[in-house]
Automatic annotation (TrEMBL):
UniProt xrefs under InterPro entries: AAA+_ATPase (IPR003593), AAA_22 (IPR049945), ExeA_AAA_ATPase_DNA-bind (IPR052026), P-loop_NTPase (IPR027417), XrtA-assoc_ATPase-like (IPR017466)
Protein name as it appears in the record: General secretion pathway protein
SMART domains in the record: AAA (SM00382)
Gene3D superfamilies: P-loop containing nucleotide triphosphate hydrolases (3.40.50.300)
GO molecular function ontology, one term from the record: ATP hydrolysis activity
Domain AAA+ ATPase: 42-208
Record-linked CDD domains: NK
Pfam name, any one: AAA_22
Residues annotated as signal peptide: none
Regions crossing the membrane: none
């Protein structure tokens, strides 16, 4: 939608990796250098890690464009959670080899034969394994074993491992991966973009789709955009896409910082924990006082059991403030309910305490003493119900305070 309004040839901030939009930030330039060095060695493992959305897949797609098809064969594996035997079969299929069943020995033989044929034809073989943090230790060990295939003294397979930060930590700390660590010839961790790279990054992508100055971008948005996204390219794309959509909907020719703030507030609301605000209604089969008390307790329990915010979903202070508002509202409702019933009972007492003539005219033969006793019992019930609700509230507040202090 917004690409039509602003006259772009395509969407400049799509979330799927596209090598055509590759932007060489400082960290991506270093990663490409490490990749180039590793590929020139022609053996072992090259490891690239980074946060989700840091640009690993785009980097590899850009790298593949630079490789000569007649000199290198590339197989790609995007893993879920593979064990050792599954890894062998998936690797074989990534090279187009027809292996079936659970015959591991047959799959290994097919891979070795394929590697020898490629070497005799003057072609190198690269296996790219994405989402390596999901691999089991046994699967990583099988990849290491594949790297042992040689033709004389010439290695036949090189492997590029892409993973999130936890894979970097696993590789560095696991005693079971010592032999794999010794075969890593180059490694780089993709850092977020620096504050000064946000504007060039956005302009690079806009320029690729034919941006001609429409919309104009307020220079005040860049620092705010970096702070909100942490410099992660995919997050920048997400925010910019929503920002341009807002600009198109409101037919704005200038994208200003207040529009960015509105988008960020909206996105924060999308990620905020949802509190069940469904009204708890009293059970009509119970006496009024007991039904009201139980309904209030259930409402408080719903508030107390609402999901607590995390660092990835919402800032603690606003979420806690919202929860406190709900608690205060519940207290106010409890007191309002109590006051309502108390006022009604006072009116009843005044009516029953009226002069005998008036009383006789309105309620001949009524037992005033019995009615007063009944009302006193109802007042006691209301008082007990309110105390029960307040006890629940106090207990909840103390629990919340203890948790916050911890």
């Amino acid at each position: 939608m917004y690409e039509d309004f602003y006259g772009f040839s395509e969407r400049p901030f799509q979330l799927t990796p596209d090598p055509a939009f590759y932007f060489e930030s400082v960290t991506h330039k270093k990663a490409l250098s490490y990749l180039g060095y590793g590929l020139n060695q022609g053996e072992g493992f090259v490891v690239i890690t980074g946060e989700v959305g840091a640009g690993k897949s785009t980097l590899v797609a850009h790298l593949k464009q630079k490789l000569e098809d007649d000199q290198m064969t590339v197989g790609e594996v995007v893993t879920s959670a593979l064990d050792g035997e599954e890894m062998i079969h998936v690797a074989a299929r990534s090279f187009g080899l027809d292996v079936g069943g659970n015959d591991k020995a047959g799959a290994l033989a097919a891979i070795e034969l394929f590697l020898h044929e490629e070497a005799r034809n003057g072609r190198r073989v690269l296996l790219i394994v994405d989402e390596a943090q999901n691999l089991s230790i046994s699967a990583l060990e099988e990849l290491r074993m594949l790297s042992n295939f040689q033709l004389g003294s010439h290695p036949l397979l090189q492997t590029l491992l892409l993973g999130q930060p936890e894979f970097k930590h696993l590789l560095a700390q696991s005693d079971e991966l010592e032999q794999l660590r010794q075969r890593v010839i180059a490694a780089h961790h993709l850092d977020p973009m620096q504050p000064g790279e946000i504007e060039p990054y956005v302009m690079h992508r806009l320029g690729h789709v034919g941006w001609d100055g429409n919309p104009e971008l307020d220079g005040a948005i860049w620092n705010r955009l970096h702070k909100a996204t942490g410099g992660i390219p995919r997050k920048v794309n997400q925010v910019m896409s929503r920002l341009l959509l807002l600009g198109a909907v409101e037919e704005q020719a200038v994208i200003e910082v207040d529009m960015l703030d509105a988008v960020l507030d909206e996105m924060a609301g999308d990620n905020a924990p949802q509190v069940d605000e469904q009204r708890v209604r009293p059970d009509r089969s119970l006496p009024a006082s007991e039904a009201i008390a139980r309904a209030k307790v259930d409402a408080l329990q719903n508030v107390a059991s609402a999901p607590e915010p995390t660092s990835e979903t919402a800032a603690p202070a606003p979420a806690e403030s919202g929860l406190l508002d709900l608690q205060i509202q519940a207290i106010e409702q409890a007191f309002a309910e109590r006051d309502k019933h108390m006022a009604g009972m006072r009116r009843e007492i005044e009516r029953l305490s009226a002069p005998p003539a008036t009383q006789a005219a309105s309620e001949p033969g009524s037992d005033v003493a019995a009615r007063l006793e009944q009302i006193e019992l109802r007042l006691d019930e209301q008082e007990q119900s309110l105390r029960q609700v307040l006890a629940m509230m106090i207990d909840h507040f103390e629990t919340q305070g203890t948790r916050a202090a911890a």
